[in-house]
Specification:
247 residues; alpha/beta; Rossmann fold; 7-stranded mixed beta sheet; Methyltransf_25; transferase; methyltransferase activity; SAM-dependent_MTases_sf; methyltransferase
Length: 247
Amino acid sequence: MLKMTSEQWAEDFYREQMRTLQELGVLTEEDVEPLARELLEQAGRSIQSCLDLGASTGHVGQALAKSVQQVTTIELVPELVAKAKEHNPQNIRALTGSFYHLDLKEEFDLITYLDGFGLGDDDEQLWLLKRIRNWVADQGVALIDIYNPDYWQKVKGQAMNFSEIKRVYDYENSTNCMIDRWSYSDGKTYQQTLKCYTPDQIFELCRKAELKVEAYFPNGRMDYEEMSYIETASLSDCMSYRIKIVK
């Protein structure tokens, strides 16, 4: 089960990160509608119910709710859940809390966890994967973004400046963790630490959770010279890749 120390930094970081991104005018509902279509295509089956883990302000869930009969979202940060509820349609149930601890009895056709897997150590990832196995329907599927260690090792020390914020990436070889540190002009610093896995490593971890990896979908990568996001990258060059897992 996830250590409380990890949950504390996660709540602080994601609250501040989302506040900053909203001030910069990114991550709107329109931005994620293509992502929602991509998720449904990658699922490759009829989806009537969906569970979105780490839902933030709910944009992905809201986009999915246009095509899915019932969507359940889970988000750790209460302020982000409140923001989501301002715009959620009636077919979204928004839950506040940790998906490492919340007690859900239902099964879902689709489970999504985007841009956040890797909180804690291997045992904590295994705990979450076992929970996902309990939540996914027999003919259902889960789509999870996994951070690629090859990419994050290469960009260690890379810095980006925007607004009054300096963002620096680090990589801890002993734990295979990427570190994403945001330093603000007022002296405050927030960071996230996420464990990275190669395709073989996540395959083995899923096997231990009695889940099968059906497919790998590479996400994009950053061109830091041009400061632009490249949507197409290889499995070795991508920032993260999405796995499709089933029972």
